[in-house]
Amino acid sequence: MKVLVAYYSETGNTEKVARTIHEELSKKHESLLEEVKKITANDLSNYALVFLGSPCHMSDVAAPVKRILGDLPHSPRFRLAGFFTHAATMDTIYKYAGKCTTSFEKACKEKEVAFTGCYSCQGNPSPQLSKSMKEGGAPLSDAELKDYFEDVRKHPSPEDLQQAKEFAKKILRELS
Fold first, then answer.
1. Which residues are bridge partners to 85 per DSSP?
2. Can you tell me the distance from the alpha carbon of 81 to that of 112, in angstroms, rounded to the nearest whole number?
3. How far apart are CA 93 and CA 91, in angstroms?
4. How far apart are CA 87 and CA 166, in angstroms?
5. Domains of the chain, with CATH numbers?
6. In the chain, what is the greatest distance between 2 CA atoms, to the nearest angstrom?
7. Would you list the DSSP string of 52-118?
8. How does strand 49-57 pair with strand 60-61?
9. How far, CA to CA in Å, does 120 sit from each of 58, 83, 167?
């Protein structure tokens, strides 16, 4: 099966997840790893399965990925799986990253694309987000913020990447 793993990444978090998914898929399938800036929505039709990845920006997928989702062809033959990285904590993921999954689902529903699911994990926040959070943009005390940064800098962790592999395997099993 021909598979495309396309991603947009600014800090390397989403790229790590994309590479992990690609490595897993490459074991038994023809898989191409590509940055979103090098593809168009029309290119997706060359594949049976597309994994599309994005960092979370302003609670939603990043603009380059939103562009691809908006340009999806109507009723294509490929299936789409989404993945994204975010800096939200597990108890705030819906508030700060909740639109990401919704964007994948909405675009697929509107264009009648078979959507196979979405994977997400924490990623080390960008310098801009870190600065904003430190300047009062996060509802955390100084001690909580310190603990948060100590933990989030570890992501995507080996466990997160293993879960990304399991997500890819699950999607493949469902398509078999």
1. 55, 121
2. 14
3. 6
4. 21
5. 2-124+156-175 (3.40.50.360)
6. 50
7. EEEEEETTEE-HHHHHHHHTPPSS-SSEEEEEEEE---TTTHHHHHHHHHHHHHHHHHHHT-EEEEE
8. antiparallel
9. 15, 5, 10
- pLDDT tens digit string along 115-162? 999 999 999 877 676 566 666 666 667 777 777 778 788 999 999 999
Burial of 38 (0-12, 13-18, 19+ CB in 10 A): exposed
CA 171, CA 80: separation in Å to the nearest integer? 10
Alpha carbon distance 159, 164 (integer Å): 9
Q: What b/e readout covers 111-131, taking b as 16+ CB neighbours within 10 angstroms?
A: bebebbbbbbbbbbbeeebbe
Give the pLDDT confidence of 9-47 residue by residue, as tens digits. Answer: 999 999 999 999 999 999 999 999 999 999 999 999 999
Structural tokens at position 94? 């819906």
Count the residues in the chain: 176
